[in-house]
Structures are given as structure tokens and as C-alpha cells.
Amino acid sequence: MRYLGPYDVLAVAARVLRCSSADAVLRTDLNAVERVLDSVRLTSGLAESAGVMLAGLVRARPFDAANRVVAVAVVLQFVSLNRAELQLEPVADVDDLLDRIAAGEASYREAGAFIRSRLEHRPVKPEDLQDDLRLELLLSEETLTFDVEQEWWRGVRMYEQFSDPARRVIVLAQEEARGFDHAYVGTEHLLLGLITEGQSIAARVLNAVGITAPAVKELVVEIIGRGNGAAEGSIPFTPRAKSTFEYAWGESKARGAEQVRPEHLLLGVLNDRDGVGGQIITKLAADIDQVRRKLEERMTWRERSESLVTGMLAEGASWTTYGRRHHLIHELTALLDENERLHEQVANLRDLLRRHEIDPDS
Q1: DSSP 149
Q2: Residues in contact with 67: Cβ distance below 8 Å, sequence separation at least 6, in sequence order
Q3: Model pTM?
Q4: Which of 32, 82, 219, 317 could form a disulfide with 62 if both were Cys (CB 3.0 to 4.6 A apart)?
């Protein structure tokens, strides 16, 4: 599901209030907006998420004028980005709901049920993906006017927590975008960056399920087409790509990782099935859930191995010098990489035996 960021909300507010982006910032309680959006990310299902958003914005009153109108407009934007439409007729019923929310008589659950009864999902078509990209780029342009370009996702500190391979994925994604003459970096370019990086767990899992760079590039051209030339300098990221970074950052923290790695980025791409990257994986892989399972299995195995290595070195701290410890870490990391390659080969062999109706465990 596609989530809105605080600057997406500000872009909508600026349009509704017919003011500049700078004025929208001054007229909005950003802390309140962020609290509501954080609550939305804890929900599942479009109707429930929209209900939490509507109830939260109406009660928090983050906008200094036309708060209800802006709140409804933000919800309509959120629903539209997730390929659905919300029927507001008769308006009297909507006004009654907003009155009861403001008075504390209606909960977010009631708001979600109301929205669910009026929600119409649109079928997904290639042209829909193109429309989404155009809309995302418009929102990105709005975002840049808030003079926060240097904080393109949760501030610089998050980027500093990316591992060198993860940063390389981002650089490769930018190069892929330029190769298509695209003026943005989306989830499809991140997917290509993950594949071409080649050394990470994410790259190996994608290769194992048959997702290759040529196949992905062919679908990118089919779905989106080539652009008219990328702009000079840095290429902006679409809101979906930024959401992927945020999801990856959250996954790394939840799993106790010290840095965001390529596999966390792939989890972010897999999480957004409606993004172009997720759509491409769905087309090329027999089962996108199977891709996620394979990735998590590899991640779990690697995390356990690294934990054992760390524990062993900690226990031997009294007899290992810094140089010796550094050498051991390097050697054990290389051993983990080799074991991982062997594990992949064994898994492929087991799959081959099963395809020939031979039980590998017999």
C-alpha cells in the first residue's frame, strides 16, 4: 500500500488553501501531521488506514483553516494513490460523520467502516502505473519547494546508516534511471540497482528466482517507456522510492541490524506491490510471497551466523588483539559468504530433484 508523507500532505493543503508551499508550512502543525501519518502506517487495509487518517486529521486540527476540507482532500489523495475512489455523496452523511468525529462520538473504526462502504477499487492497468508515476513526480516537485531537499527521507542520519552495498544500490539505481532517460528514480530503478549490485543476499535471491536485469528492463520499457532525458545533477526520488527507504530503515531496526542493507531495500520493494518494482516482480516471479520467504530465510540464516561469530569473538576478547580480531572477522565473513553460496547450490539441487519427483529427504 502506498502511504503519504508529511510533505505530500502539505502539497495537498497548499492546493486546497490556494497558498504557496511556504505559507502551507507556516499554517500547518507538522508534528500533528506526522503523528497521524505514523498511526496510519500501523494499520492494514485501505479502508482502515483511511479511517485512521480522517479521524486523526479531524481531531488534531493541524491546519489553521478549512481543516475538515483539507482532511477530506488528503484522504481522497491517499485513496486515489492506492487505485480506489471514495464516493462522497450524499455530502450530508459525510458532514454528520465529521461532526461526530470532532465531538469524540465516532472512532477511527467507525470512520473506516464508513469509508469501506463507499470505496470502489479500480482494476490495475499499465496506464494506471504511468498515471501514478506522473502524479508522484508532481508531488516530488511540490516537496522540493519546501526547501527540505537535503532531508529526502527522515533526514541525513538515516542515509548515514546505510551500508556501503546499500549505498551502491542507490547509485546504481540512479544510473539505471539515466539509462532510461527518466527524470526520477522509482522502485523499478531500485530493483535494477539491487540486481546489478550482484553480491548481496538480495541479488542472489532475485537471481535464484529468475529475475534478471534484461527481463526487468524490458518490462520497464513496456510499462513506462523511455523518458525525454534526465535532468543534470541529482535525480529526485519518487515518494514510493522514499517510502521504500523508510520501510527498509524500519526493517533494519526491527531486526537489530546495525545498518540498512540491500536485503532490507528489497523487503521495501516487495512490500509495495503496487509500485512498478513490485508489479515487475509479480510478473516475473511465480509467487511474490515465495520471493519474500526465500529472502527472509537467507537473512535469518545469515543473522544467526553473524550472531555466533560475534559471540565467539566476544568470548575470546582476552586472547585476541585488535589486529587478530580484525583478521578473524574478515576470514569468518568470507566463510559465511562461501557457505551461503553452497547453501544456494544445495537449495537449487533440492528444487531440481523435486521437479523430477524425487524426494531430496528420502
Answers
A1: G
A2: 57, 58, 61
A3: 0.50
A4: 32
